[in-house]
Every structure is written in C-alpha cells, then in structure tokens.
C-alpha cells in the first residue's frame, strides 16, 4: 500500500470513529455552521465533539503547518481528506474568514510572530475575524477607499466606514484596509489587524432582500490601533502602505472560495432531486435542468482540474477569476431552476414546511454571489486583460 | 489521478501540437484536398505520417503491436486535429474501429489491426440509420446464412466510408428494432458483394456515405465479439468515440477562439483596436471560460473511461454536450467578431464553423446527450 493509500485508510477509520452521525447531515441553517470566536456557542454536543476532535488532530486547517495549529498535510493528503469527508458528508468542523482569507495572507506575508499568534488562534477557533474592504463609495473600484489612519508615532487613529463586512456584529477582530498615505493611490494602503472590542468601533447589520442580515456596516470613529502587538507581531500584514498587494493576493483566495471550486452542492447536478420534489417536470423545464446539469457537472470537473493545478503551480494565475465568474453565475441559475421546480411552495416566506422560507431566501441570497468579491463584470475585465491580453482592458 | 497531463502526456501533447501545426495545417490539408475535390477528403500520405508518429495504433494493445495508450492520449491527438481542422480518419479508424476491434477474436485482430497500425488502411463505423444519431434502435439486419450471415439494411453518416478498407457495422441478429440485446458487430470488408456507397460531401468538406447492404454475405469470421452480445462492444465504441469527438471539438473551439482573439488585437474601427471595446472583451472572456470548462470535462471523461469507471458513460455524454455548447459558441462568436471578413471563404474562421457543425452531429448532438444525462440521472 502506498503512503497515500494508507493515509486514506487511516483517515477513513479516524473519521468513522470521530465524526458523529449528526455532523454527517447536510448543513440546514446558520446554526449548523460553527464559526468559533470569543462568543461562540455550540449548537449541540455533536458539533462540539466534532470540532474538538478536529482541533486536536489539526483538521480545522489540515494543510497548515503543525506549529500553527494545522496537521501539516501534503496537497495530496489534503485532497484525500476532503474526498473522505465528502464521501460521508462530513460538515466542516470550523468555518471562518480567518481560515479562508487572513490565514492564507499570513502564511504568505506574515512574520513568524504573527503566524504563531494569529494562525493558532484561528485554527483553535478562538478568534473570529471579519474583513473590512468595501466602503460605501468604493465597491468594484475598491482602491478608491478612504478610511484613513493618521500616523501618531506608535499608533494610528483610524476613522471611516466599511460596508458589506460579513458577520462584523459577531466578529472579534477585523482585517481592514486603511489608507495611510493620501497621495499614493495603490501604495498608500495598509492591511491592518485590530480588535473590534476597542473603543470607537461599531457595527450595524444590513437587512437584505432575503430578510437576513449576514452583512454589516462597520464604523470606525477615532479608533486607536497600536502598530505592534509585541515582539515580531506588527499590527499590519506585509509592509506599511503596501496593503494593496496583500488585498490583491487575498482577492484571489476569496474568488476561489466563492467560486465553490472545492466542490459540494454548488457543483452538483440537480435534475433528479427536482423531479423527486416536483413529481412530473414540464418538458421544457426538464430540458433546462438537463442543460444545467451538463454545465454543473462540467464545472465540477473544471473545479477539480483547477484545484489539482493550483497544488502544483500549473494553471494561469488569473484562473480564480474565471472560476468565480462561472461558479457564481451557475449558482444563480441553479436557484432560479429550483424556484421554478418548487412552484408555489417555494414562495413561502415563513412556513415550517420550508424551514422558514429557505428556498426563496436562498434564491435571493444567490443574487449577491456575482456581486460580492468582485462582480461578474469585473471578473470578465480581469480575464480579458490578464488571460486574453486584450488591448486597453 | 490529477486532472492534468502527466509528463508523458505533456510530451505527447507537445509533439502532437508541433506535428499537426506543420503537417496538418489548414492550407496544407483541408484546403488542399478540398480545392482539388478529392474523393477521399483526406490525404493518405498524412495518414502514413500518423503511423510514423505512432498515432494510428495508439489505442491498440501492445500485444497486438499497438502502443496500449488510453483515451486521454487519443484526446490529445484529437484536440490538435480539431485545432488545425486536419481532415483525418483518426477518430473513425484509430478510436472507434480500434475500440471495437479490441473485442475481436485473435483472427479478427490479426486480420485488421496491422494495416491500421501501419497507416496502410482506413476503417470506419456504421451506426446511424437516419439523419439523427439513435443507436438505441438498430434495424439493419444480419440473418444466419450457412456458416455466416446475410446483411441487409441501410446506414448513414459513415464518415470516409467509401475510402475505408473495412467498416464496423452494428446490425441486428435477433429481437426487435429497439431491443438492447440482439446486436452483433461485423467487420465488413470494402469488397463485400452487395454493399453500395452513396458518397456525399458534407458541409465541412469531409466525405460520408449512405450505405446500402443488399444481402451482403459475411462469413462467421466477420463477427466482432459475441453474436447477439454486441451492445456492450457498441457502447464501449460509442463512449470512446464521443469522448474523442469531444476532444476534437475542444480543439475546434480553441482554434476558433485563438483566431478570434488575435483578430480583436489587430482590427481597428473608430480609431481603436476592436479588442478595446468592453462589449467584445466580455464576450471573449465568457467564451474563454466555456472553452476551459469544456476541456476539463473532456479530460475528466477520458480519465474515467480509461479507469473503467461506471461514471464514464454519463460523463462522456456530459462532455459531448458541453463541448458542443462551447465549440458552437466559439465558432459563432468567431464569425460575428470577424465581421464581414468572417463570411468570406478566403478566411479560415468559417471553416471552423463548418467543421463544428459536422462534429456536433457526429455520435449525437448536444440535445441528444443532454437528454441522455437526464435519463441516466433518473429524470
């Protein structure tokens, strides 16, 4: 048996022993997702047991080095673990913007001190992070952002407003783009890290068309951000005034995440499930579902290829933009079809049968997929410029 | 298995790309033979060169003198064929017929494989009976006659049929037209008495036959695989052919897209390169995405097929349908973005549109395969 095969066998056994049956059910609502953080509560014992087993094993962040709370798995082992988890339908033990976004940035740009402190906190689910990027006047044109940090020697005084800060009202710390040089558009932004419990930070949830409020406005009013949190732990990632490099790097990760490249529901075929729910399908709807399934199964193959290539450094560096564009457009189409197949039942906004209007709320939620993290139009701009090398793009 | 080419496959891709760009180029092959109204529709010399490159017998087992490669490798060659619009019997001979012959007896393999590997012979397959691909229904009959069979019926869209030394024919040996069982595959030699070709030129300048079998006498040696048990061989052949046609389609899409993106960088209107217009940029970027995805699912289907996966049949249909959508988009956007010049015979982009059309239809179009995906998925 090869090393990988024996790893897979061990993993299978470990999952069998440690992943409770409740944690193999599909995620039904927000409470089923464990985000960690200072105020985190487990929904039930199974969620707690599953999280703790993974934390001990380093499986909240399996491919991070052991000294930062991971399991130090190779790319191939990581893939095998994901496949084995997918096989039994295991939920992610811990979800967080720390894992998806800040972590990768720190692994790439962080100092040893930052990695030791922040990555372990993330891996152990101790600190829940949120991302402060967009501002009311700076959406697609993010670099025009104006939240300003005035240099006061050993600290900054930060003033401004962020918007679309996911779960800011439940987060502990924020990684935030702050302008530190007004004369320099691209090289005048610093990627700051600070505690939201400090004076001057307030959040206000934004109610969306889905009726839910996963996003907030975040206000910074004379927030004092120290430049350092101790030896080798600067309060910024990368260099002062070079935060745009970090942001760009991270946008790539965000696009991978939103694109659903990792597989799961977003890449699955839906026709058969729709027939089970709807009974007979109208022939034209059936045809549309078949066309959708062709696209979804093809995109799943693309996602697999994309991840395989990413692991060995093949593939175009701008490919995440393509994945994000196609994945989000596909997901919107998926929910349009699910609404069509669901009929009037899917319109119910609060009924028990729909678990509080899940079909319609989820459908509305997907409309943001192609806006957040770079709109579809911006993605197409990037593909034009960086992959196709079209003039003036 | 990672979803990209391993080292050997990457080397093959490089040599296939170079070879096809030099020897299989549009001016040298497609236009050359078309403008001479060649009755074969392809060049025999190039077929010999395919043999020298090791392409002709790549799917044939090593024990039979082939290279024992898989459908991923065949797809690599086919993508370059598509990209250069190279007229070649590779798909029908080296993929479809070769896959069927793998199931043949020692005698059958010994009789037909060496000529294929050497590039001396060209083979084809006769499946369709009518203008649409409906292999579920096979009416063409082979009745027991002495020690052999007597073949009667009609077949359509037999690619390069009139130039083929042998044609693999799917015929009914028992049951009724739409039965899954009762099919037998026959290797019918070119000189069989009672076989007549109505050979026609298609929109893409390739040649295809309507074949009539009028009591063609075949001896028992002509049978490939089991009598009445041919459905399995037919399915294996169809899967390989569909994945192969998808790979060729990816090449057609890629070639059309490359030409078009180049053109966007050269053509000026309103004092600007037309590639500067966002209206065209976004469409080109969308096209790029579709072509990338089509390539990914084609490689995936080929890997599943080579690995003997149960999912191969489903994914072969997914790939064939997806590629049809992507390549269809590539050639349509190609002609539109070229503007008036795209409508001229002198310019190559229209040739891509024509080849795509013929390839779409070969072994089932996107509607057939999307329908198949629905059926196999249970709705």
UniProtKB/TrEMBL annotation, chain A:
Gene Ontology CC terms: plasma membrane
Gene3D superfamilies: Acyl-CoA dehydrogenase/oxidase, N-terminal domain (1.10.540.10), Butyryl-CoA Dehydrogenase, subunit A, domain 2 (2.40.110.10), Butyryl-CoA Dehydrogenase, subunit A, domain 3 (1.20.140.10)
Domain Acyl-CoA oxidase/dehydrogenase middle: 130-223
Keyword Ribonucleoprotein in record: no
InterPro entries: Acyl-CoA_Oxase/DH_mid-dom, Acyl-CoA_Oxase/DH_mid-dom_sf, AcylCo_DH-like_C, AcylCo_DH/oxidase_C, AcylCoA_DH/ox_N, AcylCoA_DH/ox_N_sf, AcylCoA_DH/oxidase_NM_dom_sf, Mycobact_Acyl-CoA_DH
GO molecular-function terms, A-Z: flavin adenine dinucleotide binding; oxidoreductase activity, acting on the CH-CH group of donors
Entry keyword set: FAD, Flavoprotein, Oxidoreductase
Domain Acyl-CoA dehydrogenase/oxidase C-terminal residues, every copy: 241-388
Occurrences of domain Acyl-CoA dehydrogenase/oxidase N-terminal (ranges): 4-126
Swiss-Prot/TrEMBL cofactor(s): FAD
Family membership noted in the UniProt record: Belongs to the acyl-CoA dehydrogenase family.
PANTHER family: ACYL-COA DEHYDROGENASE, ACYL-COA DEHYDROGENASE FADE29
Protein name (Swiss-Prot/TrEMBL): Acyl-CoA dehydrogenase
Species assigned in the record: Qipengyuania vulgaris
TrEMBL record, chain B:
Signal peptide: none
Single annotated GO MF: flavin adenine dinucleotide binding
Residue intervals of the Acyl-CoA oxidase/dehydrogenase middle domain: 140-214
Pfam families tied to this protein: Acyl-CoA_dh_1 (PF00441), Acyl-CoA_dh_M (PF02770), Acyl-CoA_dh_N (PF02771)
Domain of life of the source: Bacteria
Domain Acyl-CoA dehydrogenase/oxidase C-terminal: 229-375
Residue ranges annotated for the Acyl-CoA dehydrogenase/oxidase N-terminal domain, each copy included: 7-120
Gene3D superfamilies for this protein: Acyl-CoA dehydrogenase/oxidase, N-terminal domain (1.10.540.10), Butyryl-CoA Dehydrogenase, subunit A, domain 2 (2.40.110.10), Butyryl-CoA Dehydrogenase, subunit A, domain 3 (1.20.140.10)
Cofactor(s) listed in the protein's UniProt record: FAD
PANTHER family: ACYL-COA DEHYDROGENASE (PTHR43884), ACYL-COA DEHYDROGENASE FADE28 (PTHR43884:SF20)
Protein name (Swiss-Prot/TrEMBL): Acyl-CoA dehydrogenase
Provenance organism: Qipengyuania vulgaris
């Amino acid at each position: 048996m090869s090393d990988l095969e024996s790893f897979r066998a061990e993993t299978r056994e470990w999952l069998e022993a440690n992943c409770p049956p409740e944690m193999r059910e599909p995620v039904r609502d927000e409470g089923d997702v464990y985000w960690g953080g200072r105020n985190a509560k487990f929904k039930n014992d199974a969620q707690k047991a599953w999280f703790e087993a993974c934390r001990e094993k380093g499986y909240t962040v399996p491919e991070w080095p052991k000294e930062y709370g991971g399991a130090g798995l190779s790319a191939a082992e990581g893939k095998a673990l994901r496949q084995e988890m997918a096989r039994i339908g295991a939920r992610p033990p811990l979800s967080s913007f720390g894992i998806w976004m800040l972590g990768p940035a720190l692994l790439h740009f962080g100092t040893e001190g930052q990695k030791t402190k922040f990555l372990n906190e993330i891996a152990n689910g101790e600190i829940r992070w949120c991302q402060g990027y967009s501002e009311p006047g700076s959406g697609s044109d993010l670099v025009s952002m104006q939240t300003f940090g005035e240099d006061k020697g050993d600290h900054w005084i930060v003033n401004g407003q962020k918007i679309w800060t996911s779960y800011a009202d439940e987060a502990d710390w924020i990684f935030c783009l702050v302008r530190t040089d007004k004369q320099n558009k691209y090289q005048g932004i610093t990627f700051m890290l600070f505690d939201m419990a400090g004076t001057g930070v307030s959040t206000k949830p934004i109610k969306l068309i889905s009726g839910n409020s996963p996003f907030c406005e975040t206000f910074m009013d004379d927030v004092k951000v120290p430049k350092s949190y101790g030896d080798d732990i600067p309060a910024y990632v990368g260099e002062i005034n070079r935060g745009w490099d970090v942001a760009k790097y991270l946008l790539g990760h965000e696009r991978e995440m939103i694109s659903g490249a990792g597989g799961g529901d977003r890449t699955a075929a839906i026709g058969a499930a729709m027939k089970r729910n709807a009974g007979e399908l109208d022939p034209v709807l059936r045809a549309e579902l078949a066309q959708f399934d062709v696209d979804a199964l093809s995109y799943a193959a693309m996602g697999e290829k994309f991840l395989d290539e990413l692991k060995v450094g093949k593939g175009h560096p701008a490919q995440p933009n393509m994945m994000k564009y196609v994945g989000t457009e596909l997901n919107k189409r998926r929910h349009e079809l699910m609404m069509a197949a669901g009929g009037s039942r899917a319109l119910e906004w609060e009924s028990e049968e729909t678990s509080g209007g899940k079909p319609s709320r989820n459908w509305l939620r997907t409309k943001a997929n192609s806006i957040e993290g770079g709109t579809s139009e911006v993605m197409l701009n990037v593909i034009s410029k960086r992959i196709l090398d079209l003039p003036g793009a | 298995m990672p979803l990209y080419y391993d080292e050997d496959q990457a080397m093959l891709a490089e040599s296939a790309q170079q070879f096809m760009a030099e020897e299989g180029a549009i001016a040298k092959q497609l236009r050359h033979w078309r403008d001479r109204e060649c009755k074969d529709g392809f060049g025999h010399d190039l077929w010999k060169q395919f043999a020298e490159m090791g392409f002709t017998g790549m799917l044939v087992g090593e024990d039979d003198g082939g290279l024992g490669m898989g459908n991923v490798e065949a797809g690599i060659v086919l993508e370059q064929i598509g990209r250069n619009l190279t007229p070649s019997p590779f798909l029908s001979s080296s993929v479809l017929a070769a896959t069927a012959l793998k199931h043949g007896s020692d005698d059958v393999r010994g009789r037909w494989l060496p000529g294929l590997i050497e590039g001396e012979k060209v083979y084809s397959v006769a499946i369709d009976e009518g203008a649409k691909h409906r292999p579920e229904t096979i009416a063409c009959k082979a009745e027991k006659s002495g020690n052999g069979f007597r073949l009667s019926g009609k077949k359509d869209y037999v690619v390069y049929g009139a130039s083929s030394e042998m044609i693999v024919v799917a015929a009914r040996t028992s049951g009724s037209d739409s039965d899954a069982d009762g099919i037998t595959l026959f290797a019918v030699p070119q000189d069989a008495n009672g076989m007549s070709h109505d050979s026609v030129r298609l929109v893409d300048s390739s040649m295809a036959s309507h074949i009539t079998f009028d009591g063609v006498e075949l001896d028992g040696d002509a049978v490939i695989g089991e009598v009445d048990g041919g459905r399995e061989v037919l399915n294996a052949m169809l899967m390989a052919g569909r994945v192969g046609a998808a790979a060729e389609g990816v090449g057609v899409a890629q070639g059309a897209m490359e030409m078009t993106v180049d053109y966007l960088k050269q053509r000026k209107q309103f004092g600007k390169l037309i590639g500067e217009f966002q209206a065209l940029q976004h469409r080109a970027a969308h096209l790029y995405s579709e072509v990338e995805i089509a390539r990914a699912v084609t490689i995936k289907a080929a890997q599943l097929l080579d690995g003997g996966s149960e999912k191969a049949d489903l994914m072969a249909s997914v790939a064939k349908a997806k590629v049809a959508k992507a390549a269809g988009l590539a050639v349509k956007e190609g002609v539109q973005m070229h503007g008036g010049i795209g409508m001229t015979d002198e310019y190559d982009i229209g040739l891509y549109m024509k080849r795509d059309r013929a390839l779409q239809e070969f072994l089932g179009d996107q509607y057939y395969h999307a329908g198949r995906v629905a059926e196999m998925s249970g709705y």
